[in-house]
Amino acid sequence: MDETLLRSLTPGVLGILVRRGAEFAAAEDAVQDALVEALRVWPADPPRDPKGWLVTVAWRKFLDATRAEAARRRREEAVADEPVPDAVAVDDTLHLYFLCAHPSLTPSSAVALTLRAVGGLTTRQIAQAYLVPEATMAQRISRAKRTVSRVRFDQPGDVATVLRVLYLVFNEGYSGDVDLAAEAIRLTRQLAAVIDHPEVAGLLALMLLHHARRASRTAADGSLVPLAEQDRARWDTRLIAEGVEILQAALARDQLGEFQAQAAIAALHADAPTAAETDWVQIVEWYDELVRLTGSPVVRLNRAVAVGEADGARAGLAELAQLDPGLPRYPAVAAYLHERDGDLSRAAVLYAEAARQAPTLAERDHLVRQAARLNARG
Amino acid sequence: MAKYLLLKHYRGAPAPVNNVPMDQWTRDEFSAHVQYMRDFANRLEATGEFAGELALAPEGTWVRYDGEGRPPVTDGPFAETKDLIAGWMVIDVDSYDRALELAGELSAAPGADGKPIHEWLELRPLLTEPPTVGE
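The joint structure predicted for all components is written out below.
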């Protein structure tokens, strides 16, 4: 039984049901029922056309659940007997991505609904991945379904909101038995297959380039390994090559967006044989593009680090002086640049302050170690 | 999507506005208080923002290692003035502002005379896993 195949078929099947006029929440329930049926029946009796089989069974489940009046049912069954054109199926999948990332949803609802409806994960798996009780996640998903049930399905969606949701899924990391990063890559690949958009390619490239470094980002004891100290032999060169190729094709189309720019920075890191040989000058140029595209103060902070590497710690500190000290991770960046500038006691104080503000356990521990290294007796 | 811990204190926080000890409330006042908390948790489950809660017994004991082969030291039997935690709730929300809003709502649980107790709650972000894109 190929569960990956089953899950990759889910959005298309759901999209077809919704397109045929099934209300979203009811359609989603029907597709889940059909998936359960497939898991039961397929091992002994695999269908010739898995997707057609799922559509037929899901539509029957939907009709069973909603048979209110005989006339309506006859009408719906007449529709069900019509063959499903393939060209429309592609479009249906795409619409489903837009629907699940609809701006009327909160980010966490959009993420949950995308994983459920497009990704085909179970509510339990999603709940485990996000470390909340299953009942809470079930409610989050059903509220999201109710919200988008009022959305007209024939309107084109906004690619940027879909990409933001997939980026959030990717960034959530690896808790529970579901690998959210791998799931985000799978969904972005699937999206890239149905839509020709340079930023979709940019996001996919960014994910592949970061995923390639995954094994080297943490030590055996779970502690963070900074980029400069990572064992580059453990980077996945196949993923890097794929990411770079996808990125180059996207950049060639000359419609730069923030994901392409971020991927370009990741590619320059991935391309350097050693940390010392990193092309920081080019990285600063890409940060300039990112600042232009986003105006984000966090991007400016990262840019200050890159300037510190390209032009020396003093130049980095000069950039930093123009930014708001209240920015997240400001003290960490300041500590790093002051250490590079030789002011060790100031750096130690700043590392300790950064540790108190760290949002993650691994980052906190890493910053405490940095402070301890500079403060160590003897 | 960030988790916050709401800590309820028996002691250690500033005195709340409506500061009448629970054992001096009427039964109805107490029931209304409990119902408010239950409704609050149920509503958060429905919005997908509930992550967990537990109530704790009032008295705890400080314990520490006292050297090889010796039993651990405790702070008893005499009572100490120490911070005590009554219970906790964990919420999973989209923003810090939403966390503040919910903490404010929980703090408004009814007490004596059916009026809000204005309880002080400590709001603490939970440390999480590092994001995948972070370099």
